[in-house]
DNA sequence: AGGATGTGTGGTTACGTTCCCACATAGATG
DNA sequence: CATCTATGTGGGAACGTAACCACACATCCT
């Protein structure tokens, strides 16, 4: 019951084997297969044929060792189980693959230590670049010191120049809150994750901007900040409803929207007659529950694609000016928002 | 506007630098840092301190070249955008990271060509093992010939001995259909993806088994097979309802369940009074719509974790007997299933 | 006393690739 | 005719690491 059949091809075939087979030097074989440098057409043919025949697979580690860079891009996101980050990774992977790069994917649970560990591993494997949803600036510093190109996605954090793609959180949040204000709501609660990230800060800003534009003061007691995975989130939302009587809630990410929704269901609150709800990030369920949830939709996959494209560009042109792309979200109005009760 | 600050550390520090700094030979430095072989306690301390001080990061490509194996596990799944595969990848990544492996993640869109390309890349980078949701046997053959350990997850395909983790699809499907039969349904339609994978085959089998156990003949016209991303899926489901009047539908994956659900909604069919629905894979929305969808829940993240654990075991003990784990799904009964209309 | 055995160290090679360099030939240019 | 450029080829030195080997010295056993 031996699982390893003592491999039919004990040692993989190397460039030297190909060269011998085709009767050329190793140098020529390398040129023919890598496509760099002169090599006569017929000789190239002969070498390619030999490589094909022997099933040659170039040794990536030897290439990396020599060239001091690999084809493996490092990607680190906050939470792989969250559908948003999953979509992000999907977009990144797809674009990288089309450009013949591979993706090493790491989840850091929003912990700076994990982020740094991942980045260390990336440096060890000589990644040509890194894409990250930044947690702390240490990781970025490490990469910058080594001259490794970085693209920030979903939020900005860097204190050094680097590329980035984010969505316009301020505008997304402002439109959401304006929508509620237009419906006559004046006590609009904000549920948001307690970070110093630009994503969350932008959503808070948009909330404030909408109020300011309507010449309304913000009641700070309506702003609730949550840690990442807060087991007491639903309790706190319940408490908010009891003590501060909002007529609408703007939940600044998909998880908080879901939790708010569950609280409403548990308390028997009807959307939108008893209370209105707007979410952020148009995940699957928002369009399936009834009434549907009004949501700020963000182009998740596209966000990933753009990040990958930016990185590839940066790898090809290391000295180009840093680019910062801003993708536009859009408000999807569904049945969860309606006129404020009087 | 120069983005690359001409790296503060032009060339990364190597083992030789550490050895010089600590006044030992390179060999000793290697032993101290890798932890293999003898080295005096005080000398080890000195070397570790030097490494820390100089910010030493071992060169993974050099290690891989020398050791002929890397710490990067190759993972290929069918569709990264699908939440099921996302969860699978999340479970795998988490477990690999705990064991100090990294994950290269590739999506193959269920195309054999992409799968093979991914596997080629894995071989080039000397992955110590590969986890895949298999599409065709060619990829497996390639890996097996090279003696690379493989773990199949979600479905079995290999014609060579290898480890695998799947859930008990037959039982999951049987329980789902038995539940419907107990409710008095006799015309139960089956929606299933048209593959030769054990996952789908198992679900069809479970469907048949339940009928057989109840001494009922299966009406073959109630079994609908779909290509992967079938844009006409909803039309076909609609047609099924019109022409074959099922009183219940068993949708054998989360996507088909969603499509069936949309068709019901579009046609104004009420669950469960007009028709009953059972899905497979307990994704988020099934518990949020009303009525909730009765579903065969599978432990997705755990599936990934097990696969990774199996691979790690195989890497450590290459000659152990192949292991084939079977995880149990369980039926979550919600409001979408009720007595058959008469 | 003489060999095992265990501990500790350093020299050297090999892993598979790329790329610099030297060199060769041919045709074009002065 | 001498020189230049373009094209083509092969030799050989790296890249950074791990591991084999030789060697040195203790300690322990017979």
Q: Proportion of β residues of chain A? A: 15-25%
Mean pLDDT of chain A: 94
Largest interface (CB within 8 Å) is between:
A-B, 64 and 65 residues
**Major β-sheet strand ordering of chain A:** 2-1-3-4-5-11
Radius of gyration of chain A: 26 Å
- Low-confidence residue ranges of chain A: 1-8
Enumerate how many helices of chain A there are, as a single number: 12
How does the overall form of chain A come out from the CA principal axes? elongated
Distance between the termini of chain A: 76 Å
Total strands of chain A: the figure is 12
Task: Name the helicity range of chain A.
Answer: 40-55%
Main pleated sheet of chain A: 6 strands, parallel
Oligomeric assembly: homodimer
Order of helices and strands of chain A: HHHHEHEHEHEEHEHEHEHEEHEE
**Structural class designation of chain A:** alpha/beta
Write up what this structure looks like:
The structure is a homodimer of 342-residue chains. With 342 residues, chain A is α/β, with parallel strands linked by helices. Chain A has twelve helices and twelve strands. In chain A, helix 5 runs parallel beside helix 12. Helices cover 44% and strands 16% of the residues of chain A. In chain A, the strands form two sheets. Chain A has a six-stranded parallel β-sheet, sandwiched between helices. In chain A, strands 7-6-8-9-10-12 form a six-stranded mixed β-sheet, sandwiched between helices. In chain A, strand 6 (188-193), helix 9 and strand 7 (223-226) form a beta-alpha-beta unit. The structure holds a DNA duplex (30 and 30 nucleotides).
């Amino acid at each position: 019951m031996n699982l390893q059949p003592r491999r039919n091809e004990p040692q993989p075939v190397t460039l030297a084997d190909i060269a011998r087979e085709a009767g050329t030097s190793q140098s020529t074989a390398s040129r023919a297969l890598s496509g760099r440098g002169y090599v006569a057409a017929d000789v190239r043919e002969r070498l390619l044929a030999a490589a094909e025949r022997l099933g040659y697979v170039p040794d990536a580690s030897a290439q990396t060792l020599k060239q001091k860079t690999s084809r493996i891009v490092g990607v680190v996101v906050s939470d792989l189980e969250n559908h948003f980050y999953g979509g992000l990774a999907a977009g990144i992977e797809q674009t990288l693959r089309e450009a013949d790069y591979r993706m090493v994917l790491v989840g850091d649970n929003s912990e700076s230590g994990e982020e740094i560990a991942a980045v260390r591993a990336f440096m060890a494997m000589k990644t040509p670049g890194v894409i990250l949803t930044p947690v702390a600036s240490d990781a970025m510093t490490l990469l910058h010191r080594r001259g490794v190109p970085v693209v920030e996605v979903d939020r900005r954090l860097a204190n050094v120049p680097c590329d980035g793609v984010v969505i316009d959180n301020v505008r997304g949040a402002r439109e959401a809150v304006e929508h509620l204000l237009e419906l006559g709501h004046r006590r609009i609660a904000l549920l948001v994750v307690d970070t110093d990230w630009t994503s969350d800060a932008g959503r808070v800003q948009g909330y404030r901007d909408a109020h300011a534009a309507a010449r309304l003061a913000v009641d700070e007691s309506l702003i609730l900040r949550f840690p990442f995975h807060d087991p007491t989130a639903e309790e706190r939302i319940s408490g908010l409803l009891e003590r501060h009587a909002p007529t609408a809630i703007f939940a600044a990410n998909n998880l908080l929207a879901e939790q708010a929704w569950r609280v409403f269901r548990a308390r028997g609150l009807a959307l939108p007659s008893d209370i209105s709800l707007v979410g952020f990030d148009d995940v699957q369920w928002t369009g399936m529950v009834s009434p549907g949830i009004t949501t700020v939709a963000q182009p998740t996959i596209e966000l990933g694609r753009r990040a990958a494209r930016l990185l590839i560009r940066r790898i090809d042109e290391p000295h180009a000016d840093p680019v910062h792309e801003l993708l536009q979200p859009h408000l999807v109005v569904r049945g969860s928002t309606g006129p404020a009760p009087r």
